[in-house]
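Worked Example 4.2. Consider the chain below.
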Amino acid sequence: MTSIPVNASENIQINHDALQDIFHNCVDVVFRPLKLSEHSNILLVYIEELTDSSKLEQIITACMMSRDIDRLTQYEMATNLSEIVAKVLKGSTAIFLDGKPFAYLAEITLFKQRAINEPTNEASIRGPREGFTEDLKTNLSMLRRKISNSKLKFETHQAGELTNTSFVVAYIEDVVKPELLEEVRARLQTFKTDQLLDSGYIEEFIEDKSFSLFPQIQNTERPDTVSASLLAGRVAIIVDGSPNALLLPMTFWSGFQAAEDHYERFLYVSSVRLLRFLLAIMSCLLPSIYVALTTFHPQMIPLSLMLSISASREGIPFPTVIETLLMELMFEGLREAGLRLPKAIGSAVSIVGALVIGEAAVQAGFISAPIVMIVAGTGIASFAFPSYSLALPFRILRFPLLISGGVLGLYGIAIGIIFILIHLVTLKSFGMPYLKPVAPISSNFWKDTLIRINKRFVSTQGKQ
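Applying the procedure from the previous section yields the following structure tokens:
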């Protein structure tokens, strides 16, 4: 391979050879030489699958007509070959003219993209039905339509030495705190990677504590959620090729807020939010409390209920903690299998599998019937989380709490809860305490945390 010049040459053949060396074995890159006159040539370099063919033919027609060659001046010019290559890979068409030491870059891209559909992971009963797609420009246009104000700013960045992926930092000027914006910029400047394929790459790199089970950056597919968060002073990061936007900072309470919480009446929303929080506690503590009570503290259970539990456990070969642990592992396995299987059979396998295995285990005398009810109730409670990323730590913490309850009883559960609370109190997301406004307590505690008050009494809507 010959040495590749840094800048474009006045000689089209030199530019052709240099780009051929750069794009060797790239069969999708098209080199299209055209002869304008006996002493004038033109070279077009583009990727056919990323180019609008009709607009390309218009450019070619304009170039073939010498009087229309000045139309090319409307396009961006570039002299550096690396910049030209990067633009071509993004879908632009590079146009080289004889005697010109630069290339015109015509942005006539035509990407095949997914249509705007309702988000599958954040479906809502009431509210907008549109969700982000994998196209960055489409996502930005949806935000701009919801917030038609010049204070909505989009800062463009690029990362990934191999992927050259573009992403945008969105915020509302004079609403976002300057120190938060500077902190986001500082962390993004240190973000170095060879590849950036999804927003999750950025999330894992810039979060405060990577080894914490709890998410410190919220992700969403909904433009209305992002818009409401921007209006509340938060910052959004939107990555080209990813339908999931990042919202920061995040608090613990954000994970209990669904998309339609600001579209329904406040009495209903407040009741449902309290129910979600109770179900979250239930999904984490119910198995461990059952094991602790039946193993170490049977005197705390009503006599008739304890007799019923004891009768159902006759002939069971495993201790309560072991059978609960086995059933929890089986339930999580069925849930994971249901997610990975095709949608047509995934839900059927997880539901039917749980019923068949649970019934068979009880009939065979391996598992007691109350354990099946406890595990089923825990599983149902774990589906009440609006945020999938916040549901994951509760699913994981269920197992160490179960073991603690099986070893030390309620004292073990209490110790585990204390450690979790200590971690949550010390956790921060971009300088904001994770449990704010509950710890530390603030005046916004009753506005939009576990309950939502009537919008008549607040001047600004809370974040979704």
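Residues 460-464 have pLDDT under 50 and may be disordered. The first strand starts at residue 29 and ends at 37. Compare this with Example 4.1 before moving on.
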